[in-house]
């Protein structure tokens, strides 16, 4: 390569994948540098308009913080010791090289390394780049030189990560192919296992001067029990057709785990201009046995590979596509099983411009936009390693998208000469080639899209793909770390989303972001176009460490039982830790998972313990850290007096002994006894202290703290009698009358059902009333009724000739009587001198309510008849009274014998005969009765005598 510098010949070299997966976390493993002199620089960009910080870590320590936003990509120059080594003693050992980047919003990250005549870019795939199983890719070098190598750097993301690397045994050849050899390592056999903590790394590297290392480590398998990231390739290398070529360039990229691979790919030819050098094409590495490889839709495989074996695709396999807009070369690759595909790149006519791009598989779940790829045409080649743009830079943009898509680059459609071009062997996809782009790039498509670049300037070049490093979309963390606070997201270009927790759909969670409210295994089922629905890999969400502050009192040694404040898990004894011991006593973890706190002798006052414990769910472990503020206090008890209301209807007052304030210490246990002797003997405990019947006196209580402190106290019981008002009694009034109610004096408060708060209420009518009487804090409810006075009833009226006697009952005597009007009332119930005809009798009782009236008829009573047939006084006729209810008419002789009974058959008429014979002349007696048609059916009775004179 020095000869190129001396002659100032234009040299192009290609640099691998420029930009990577957009994510909130990125990891970059270290690489082994056999050439030296590189400047290593991070390039960071995002689509977020809101600025945010990206924190860079090495070996779990903060290196720097960089603020980025859309349109404002940033760089950071690294110390080479943080990411690479050319020192043999730092290979094949556990080290601390490697980077971890973290932010609250997703961003793109790449590592660019350059020096005067060489350069490379390693792109981080974010979470898509970490996993547990990988196959190593490196350059199939054509010559032996110590500036060539293979390198595979592994970086752990979690503590106690065990990694096993195995590589192929060399085939039996003549001459014999030597085995792989390592810089600073001599493992036995073809495997090696090592353990890493989070942030630690391990570099496996082999010198290109050894024949067994030219191709022997390609296809090596890396298996970890926890997620790791892998940087693989060669630094430097040469894969051209020229044997013993002296040109070289770094060929590096970040790998992806096997669970992110696919089996259909497209490549667009880059910028090599000499096909005979074979600087273009690709490298396929199989992950399973019997993997068939097909090119451009051929029906016959170009190769069949077993796991860990590789195939070099030659440049001649590119297909030329000609459209009215122009000419373009691309290639369609398909395999029967998932594989790695790395695209080889060359620039110009040089064999030294080697490039190495991991190619993402085609699938309709690729993103719909790539936003934003920053500083496309910059490299750390300025003074002091500054990032600069060369004036002769030419960068080509290659786009792969589904057929029929509308594509925009920085909001402008490509020219017809730039595409779309068909893809031989696959009509579902098309490609674009835009010959010159600069600055910051945003690519959008109405369908799945990925894109890459290749290009160069006088002594360096670069290229690579921007997105799609997982064949299945995966969940990334938008913000936060754990519940509460973590927000998960997927790209927002898919058609539908349904989030799941532990396999169960989360109701209403159908957006591209979701905020978990509890720990669990989260997945998302998404759909896009004609693709069958796909479910993302599991994203484990843990609960944050819960920080709790509690306060308790202690009177002596106190046992503290750790318990979760919100989690349903049970604390595990082995996880219990005292983070901050007390300063005024001691705290000891007991075998049963409790903590015993013992204050220093004689100390009273505050003290603090901070302890932490975790739960029993192995997969989603809840942990809580409690700051316990203790107050060491003396245990003091005091006698107390309590009161209870004693109602006049009960033989006792009922006391709640538990309300007696005998101690401020908490928690305590209390036992109650009727006598001090019972307390001391521990017998006859009061079993219902909250409802203890008593007429007054004293009881005793024994108080015991959780720490075992005990003391006794006396409780005095004071009953408060309260009785119903003796003067508040039921009253009777007329229906339309009003009255007053009064409970009388002697109470502290009154609350009537009418709302009144005085002792009495005035002018109330018939109804039921209540009053709450209060005295000395006791209250009782007394009900009083104002009733309608019963009306008196005219029980009967007896009429004797022109006299009437009214008999009354009911109501409240004495009664008043009146007839034919209510102007003249009399005390007597007898009326004399009544005329024949209708009369109304009135009565009222002592309540003086509306009078009760009964209207009766005083009939025309005859005192003599002469039944001789002269039609003068021949009959007694009461047929006009026949309409009266229950009318009776009877005639008696002086001995009481019935002579005649009137009825409807004789029409209540008597002709002075008995059994149709005339009776003897004489005086006879009669009575007439009926019921008036009022509601009380008042009985009326007329009595008198009649003279019967029979004439012959």
TrEMBL record:
Residues 1-20 form the signal peptide. Transmembrane segments: none annotated. It comes from Chryseobacterium indologenes. The lineage of its organism: Bacteria, Pseudomonadati, Bacteroidota, Flavobacteriia, Flavobacteriales. This is Gliding motility-associated C-terminal domain-containing protein. Keywords: Signal. NCBIfam families: Bac_Flav_CTERM. InterPro entries: IgGFc-bd_N, T9SS_type_B. The keyword Acetylation does not apply. The keyword NAD does not apply. Residues 130-454 form the IgGFc-binding protein N-terminal domain.
